[in-house]
């Protein structure tokens, strides 16, 4: 069983839109729907669970029905932090699925993850036990604790950007959460599932992601995502590089 847990708990503060960013409409659909459709149409994904602000669950239920998102099996409220929210989604998935199931944890506002990246995550878990989507950094990364002076400069060839999905066996990632939750620090400084498992000494395995798999967080990101959609539409209009398997998923 391959499951997607989609975290859509943002409040939209950085977007300045007055509504959670996942509900901003682009080309007639909320961003969260663009994201969900990628997993809905992937032939290896069996079920989808969504985690979001409790007040917006009725609206999400309407969107699931309107856009015929038939793989969505549950929508649960988020928690105090992002990791608390993901834990809620994982626990809901565990009520209905075995611990050996593969779970792909994904941001609801990353609507440009490719079909191939989803497949590589599933295969990565089968081979290595987990899969962290990454892309090589093209920019030079600087390290600074003050934000004023550069302290270290890692070799660019050794730097990667972690993205999503981040994927695991369902029982193993829940056990990792529960180990962390017993600590006094809980989720302090654990920004994603990769940092969570590394904090308890687990090995994290990388899989290649796709360029353009941005997290739509700021107004500039919205413009970028619109441009990516235009790129895809132009590509399809001219029939460039399309096959029956990638017409919907070419990124």
SSE topology:
Blueprint: E1 2-8, E2 25-26, E3 29-30, H1 31-40, E4 47-52, H2 57-66, E5 72-77, H3 82-96, E6 102-107, H4 115-128, E7 130-136, E8 160-169, H5 170-181, H6 193-199, E9 206-208, H7 219-237
Parallel strand pairs: 1-4, 1-6, 4-5, 7-9
Antiparallel strand pairs: 2-3, 6-8, 7-8
Helix pairs in contact: 3-5, 5-6
pLDDT under 50 segments (min length 5)?
A: 247-251
Radius of gyration: 18 Å
What is the string of SSEs from the N terminus onward?
A: EEEHEHEHEHEEHHEH
The gross shape turns out to be globular
User: Can you count the helices?
Assistant: 7
Helix content percent band? 25-40%
Largest sheet report? 7 strands, mixed
Through-space gap between termini? 25 Å
Rounded mean pLDDT score? 91
Oligomer: single chain
Could you give the count of β-strands?
9
Strand order of the largest sheet: 5-4-1-6-8-7-9
Structure description:
The protein has 251 residues and is an alpha/beta fold. It is 35% helix and 20% strand. The protein is built from seven helices and nine strands, in the order βββαβαβαβαββααβα. The chain has helices spanning 31-40, 57-66, 82-96, 115-128, 170-181, 193-199, 219-237; strands spanning 2-8, 25-26, 29-30, 47-52, 72-77, 102-107, 130-136, 160-169, 206-208. The strands form two sheets. It has a seven-stranded mixed sheet with strand order 5-4-1-6-8-7-9, sandwiched between helices. Strand 4, helix 2 and strand 5 (72-77) form a beta-alpha-beta unit. It is globular. The chain starts with a strand and ends in a 14-residue tail after the last helix.
């Amino acid at each position: 069983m391959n499951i997607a847990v989609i975290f859509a708990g943002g409040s939209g503060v950085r977007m300045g839109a007055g509504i959670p960013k996942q509900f901003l409409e682009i080309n007639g659909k909320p961003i969260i729907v663009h994201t969900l459709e990628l997993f809905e149409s992937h032939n290896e994904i069996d079920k989808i669970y969504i985690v979001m602000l409790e007040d917006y669950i009725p609206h999400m239920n309407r969107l699931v029905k309107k856009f015929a998102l038939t793989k969505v099996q549950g929508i649960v409220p988020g928690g105090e932090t992002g990791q608390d929210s993901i834990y809620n989604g994982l626990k809901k998935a565990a009520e209905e699925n075995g611990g050996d199931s593969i779970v792909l944890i994904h941001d609801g506002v990353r609507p440009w993850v490719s079909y191939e990246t989803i497949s590589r995550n599933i295969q990565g878990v089968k081979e290595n036990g987990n899969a962290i989507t990454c892309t090589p950094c093209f920019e030079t990364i600087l390290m600074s604790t003050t934000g004023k002076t550069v302290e270290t400069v890692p070799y660019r060839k050794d730097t990667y950007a972690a993205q999503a999905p981040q994927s695991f066996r369902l029982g193993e990632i829940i056990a990792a959460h529960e180990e962390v939750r017993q600590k006094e620090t809980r989720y302090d400084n654990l920004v994603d599932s990769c940092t969570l498992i590394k904090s308890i000494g687990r090995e994290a395995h990388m899989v290649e992601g796709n360029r353009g798999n941005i997290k739509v967080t700021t107004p500039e990101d919205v413009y970028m995502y619109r441009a990516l959609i235009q790129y895809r539409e132009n590509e399809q209009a001219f029939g460039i590089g399309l096959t029956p398997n990638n017409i919907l998923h070419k990124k």
